[in-house]
Design a protein that fits this description.
By secondary structure, the protein is α/β, with parallel strands linked by helices. The chain has a single domain, classed as Rossmann fold (3-Layer(aba) Sandwich). It binds S-adenosylmethionine.
Length: 223
């Protein structure tokens, strides 16, 4: 690995994450990156039992949430549509190193196409029952799908480090991307995040947090 690449961190559940130099924060939980992905995002949005989930993620990072979702849908034979935004793609070596045991063929296909230094604006892959689209642009100025997502993973670094993706205005735009019955999940339980979700018309529920966090949030769109 080149010396400037972010250091890999092995977390207590055996999964790996890395430190982002830009934000001075780990991409996933140091207390268990895969555990957080499953508890907060996959189960928090009911994606683990949805017959045909359509997931919108901000941001794709190292793909830990994607792989947790993929492992679940592939094991139960459910199709998966996954659309993510990522404006600062990590080097492919980091993605490869963080995910050393990936069985589903879409992962090597993604690594093959992953070219953060090229001009690619997006990648779309269709492999077996999985469609993965990654937009390499700032989600703040992107056109989001409307009433589409059964699940929204709001995972854009913490509100203190990256406040732009947690503002009431942006959260209101995210709410419109949820299909009726769709659920947004985030590891943050901060009061201002809760209020922004409520102001966007979502019904907010507190849940027990993943290891290292007391609580996390789920927010449901009804109409
Ligand atoms: C906490 S990490 C995400 C970890 C990821 N979900 C995973 O499973 O590995 C946050 C990611 O959001 C991206 N991000 C932050 N703000 C963004 C924005 N405005 N537009 C697009 N991506 C953004 C960062 O570059 C970073 O990769």
């Amino acid at each position: 690995m080149p010396p400037d690449d972010p250091p890999i961190i092995t977390t207590p559940d055996g999964s790996r994450t890395a430190l982002s130099a830009r934000y001075g924060e780990a991409y996933g939980s140091r207390h268990g990156a895969a555990t957080q992905a499953r508890h907060v995002f996959l189960e928090g949005t009911g994606t683990d039992t949805h017959p045909a989930p359509r997931v919108l993620e901000i941001g794709f990072g190292l793909g830990v949430n994607f792989r947790a979702t993929l492992a679940n849908t592939a094991a139960r034979g459910a199709p998966l549509e996954y659309v993510a935004w990522e404006f600062d793609p990590a080097p492919v070596e980091i993605l490869r190193e963080v995910a050393d045991q990936e069985a589903h063929p879409i992962w090597p296909a993604l690594l093959e196409r992953w070219a953060p230094d090229a001009e690619a604006e997006s990648i779309q892959l269709d492999v077996q029952d999985v469609r993965l689209t990654i937009h390499f642009e700032d989600v703040l100025t992107a056109t989001l799908p409307r009433a589409w997502a059964t699940a929204l993973y709001l995972d854009g670094f913490s509100p203190t480090r990256n406040p732009e993706v947690w503002t009431p205005d942006f959260v209101a735009r995210l709410a419109l991307a949820l299909a009726p019955g769709g659920m947004l999940a985030t590891y943050s339980a901060a009061g201002h995040v809760r209020r922004a979700l409520q102001a966007a018309g979502l019904r907010v529920e507190r849940r027990p947090g993943a290891p290292g966090k007391r609580e996390c949030l789920r927010a449901v769109r009804f109409a």
